[in-house]
Amino acid sequence: MTLELKPGQELARGVCRHLASLDFVSIEEFTPKTGLRVDVMALGPKGEFWIIECKSSRNDFQSDKKWQNYLEWCDRYFWAVNSDFMTELLPEETGIIIADAYYADIIRTGPENKLSAPRRKTLLHKFARQAAMRWHNARDPGLIHL
Amino acid sequence: MTLELKPGQELARGVCRHLASLDFVSIEEFTPKTGLRVDVMALGPKGEFWIIECKSSRNDFQSDKKWQNYLEWCDRYFWAVNSDFMTELLPEETGIIIADAYYADIIRTGPENKLSAPRRKTLLHKFARQAAMRWHNARDPGLIHL
């Protein structure tokens, strides 16, 4: 598998590794609904959903006008930034993860806003299907999507 | 990814390709509970779960003493066999898929026995986590499970 990652994808890789150590599974570039794509969607052992947006620079963060739309699709929301990032810029009431391409650490958890049961069910179904579809593409290069 | 498959795994590959054409996602060697491993677990667009056991020979089928334990973990149950298999051997009230390494066809659907809502929820959570974990292992070879 090619490993030429963009800066944001490098952060995502480190984030996903750290999440795995917390027993969260995760997929990158997950689409909770059409037109909305989150950098990392993580699913915890008890069914918790966390969204992590990875920002490689101040400019990358400041040009994101969509992030508040993500809040209704998770129990907790985090930013992942590198150790040079001025974390004071990040909104209160959000979580913060300091990451690099290899690992990450949660430095602020932020509040929990629990998903409703029907939305959680919908999300779980989409998450399961997107994860299985990607794994199928990886294990069977002969697969043709109709 | 290595493609040296055993006969049963070849059937599973063909089965998963056909399921994809029906908008079912699937994972192989799925564990619904400790000690129970099914050849293919498929998840449909409406949340349906199908189990498909792949039998490469008469002997392979007749030595399976566990298959009835799988019934309570799916809405529909199928056998996948190759075109030489004497399908008369297969129990009534089960579905049949004729498969090879490249493709498959459902020739008997068998009855539907709907999962209870709590069990469906548990299964969906396990399916999501197993699929995401395998996809994570594939996309990040540097991942170390703790």
TrEMBL record, chains A, B:
<dbReference type="InterPro" id="IPR009394">
    <property type="entry name" value="MmcB-like"/>
</dbReference>
<dbReference type="Pfam" id="PF06319">
    <property type="entry name" value="MmcB-like"/>
</dbReference>
<dbReference type="InterPro" id="IPR011856">
    <property type="entry name" value="tRNA_endonuc-like_dom_sf"/>
</dbReference>
<protein>
    <submittedName>
        <fullName>MmcB family DNA repair protein</fullName>
    </submittedName>
</protein>
<dbReference type="InterPro" id="IPR011335">
    <property type="entry name" value="Restrct_endonuc-II-like"/>
</dbReference>
